[in-house]
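quick one, 350 residues, struct below
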Amino acid sequence: MIQINNCFAAALSLIVAVSGQSAAQKTPGKIGPLVTDLYTADPSAHVFNGKIYIYPSHDVEADVPQDDEGGHFQMRDYHVYSLDKIGGKVTDHGVALDVKDVPWADKQMWAPDAAYKNGTYLLYFPAKDKEGIFRIGVATSKSPTGPFKAEPKPIAGSYSIDPAVFTDTDGKAYMYLGGIWGGQLQRWHTGTYKKALMTDLGKGHENEPALGAKVAVMKDNMLSFGEPLRDVQILDENGKPLLASDTNRRFFEGAWMHKYNGKYYFSYSTGDTHLLCYAEGNSPYGPFTYKGVIMNPVEGWTTHHSIVEVKGKWYLFYHDSELSGKTHLRNVKVRELIRDSSGNITTINP
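---
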């Protein structure tokens, strides 16, 4: 295991602006990358047995031209990182899963997530199969750091990218997934895969409801869906579905779910407009009402996050491109998440 110096700023507490305009968190000094010897992105953070574990994707330079389908993101394996506390040393536990050890997968091991149940840790991950179609796989281990052994086939009925598994207080677990453009979610719009749908649904659909993420409750074994995937609906302040043309608010990719004071917070990336946003609901299925921006654009094209409670405080794990200046070679960061007395998240200016 490799000990990695933590480049945090000395203070993680954030100053909240109190001007007559919208309140926003201001950077309390430079927030440094958690990992500097590898490029890491899409951090899914969890607390297992009092310790923080981060499950990111592992960016590599593959010399593939940049395109709207993300062909330049050629990740091949996953590392797991841990730390005892926010601001503490970060430990790299090495390769937890490699694409060569996933029987059905061909390439592009994109943003993963993890869960725990009944003595087993589960790593969920997207990858393209031999036909170039993204599916969601699952691998298991008796340790949160792996190594993980992949199931021989992807989860039945799965497609697209960015799996995020939320376990509710009643013990039921739900997987959220999906991403448009390179994530191929738009290709499943009719219920079957149509390769010709390349990015959004295309011209003429701008005033239709936006494509949404998908959700399904998991079976008790956490290896498969307990039902067909459902749509995750995001509504505006008037109770109307967000439109495809509403690119500052509509879902693009990177779903995450957390629960706070009995409310369900569905958060996500707007993709080509580079915002992290959130919506609030009364059920893990939604519908969710749009509430606001979690974080304004970071350096780099993509933005992807997770939100986790650590010892009574909430933290946002995210990435930017500070180390490389290249959108496909990213680095993971973390900072405190601030809420007002009503539970509304205060916008972060990175």
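The two ends are 31 Å apart (CA to CA).
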